[in-house]
Amino acid sequence: MEKIREIFLTSTFKQSSLTMFGTVTNGFLGAVFYILVARYLGPAQFGLFSIATLVLNMVADIGDLGTNTGLVRFVSANRIDNPEKANRFLKLGFEVKLIAAFVIGIVGVSLSSWIAVFLFKKPELAPLLRIAFIGVSGSLLFSFILTTLQAYERFWSWSLIQVISNAGRIVLIFLFFRFINVSAFTSMGAYILIPMLGFVGGLFVTSTKFFNVKGEITEIKDFFHYNKWVALFTLIAAVSGRLDSFLTARYLTVFEIGIYAAATRVTQIVPQLVGAISTVVAPKMANVGSKKELVEYIKKTQIFVIAIAILGILSLPVVSYFIPILFGSAYTASVPIFIVLLFAMLVLLISIPIHTAVFYYFSYPKLFVYISTGHLLIVALAGYFFIPTYGVMAIAYSVLAAGIFGFVVPSIWVYRKLFKNI
Fold it and tell me: How far is residue 260's CA from residue 393's CA, in Å, rounded to a whole number?
């Protein structure tokens, strides 16, 4: 009991509670947005919308080139003792994102028709993909604001700006419904516009001193030496983490895609919680001084995330009951998919202490290149061979198997690093 009481008194718990409150609120608003879009569009059009947003988020993750992780690593480590150096890293990261946004926008819009026809075999997807590639720039710049706030541990602002953004999307959907119409096209417009506005607004709540700093080029070597493995991991993880949805997009009907997308959206509150907790844990991991301190910190955070995972399991009956009520009776088939995917997401949740230790204490992102490759192979092979027999459920089970793999392997690696001399 004393150990549990200590956990609830730690700054990690207090700050995680803050970010989790913001994330739960943000997740609720995000869920409302997707529920409204799903109900307005129906499974088929919602399936197309889901593919477009999937492409947007995947390309934005790849185009980030590991910049967000690098900023947390280097800005957190220097913001107190060497603020000038921290600002140089911020300016460098911002410039990388601007270049990536420009290149991706030009290339992506040019290739949208080809991707829709030859990759997804759905020509009607092309206009939505063009909007998605334009929206990548807003996603990259908005994530820069969030990462800056994370690195400086400004968690109130980190939470608030996301809550306002998702609330803005809901307002836009209502306005479209009232004065124009809600289609997959206008829904994508609402989806990409808000991050762009969020970036502009975010500049007023973050320090812009980094714009005036000189010599950011001197930090390129350290930044990209660390980021090269993060970027490679991000590339593989961005594909493997969404490969399930890509497989559904290629091999299933747009109706089945919509059913799977609905189940996926309901489970997204868990990755958002993962992001909220990691937002607090990552800077602290980067500043842990010894292995003894690390072990103690991992124990506390592990108990914390396991407790949240148990609450998630207890919520299963209630959420399963409400899915067809909220989304509509057409989405009843989403319930069994949701149950399997929820367990997969909870495995990701309990992996937080191990994953952040690898990235921010051991500074060894290379490990996740191998793990993400394994994740990709598990989902690809299981999905490809079992879709003909088990349909959409095969994808869900492959995600669960890959999630377990992604927890067990780094856990063994961290354990050996910590206790190999004992």
Answer: 9
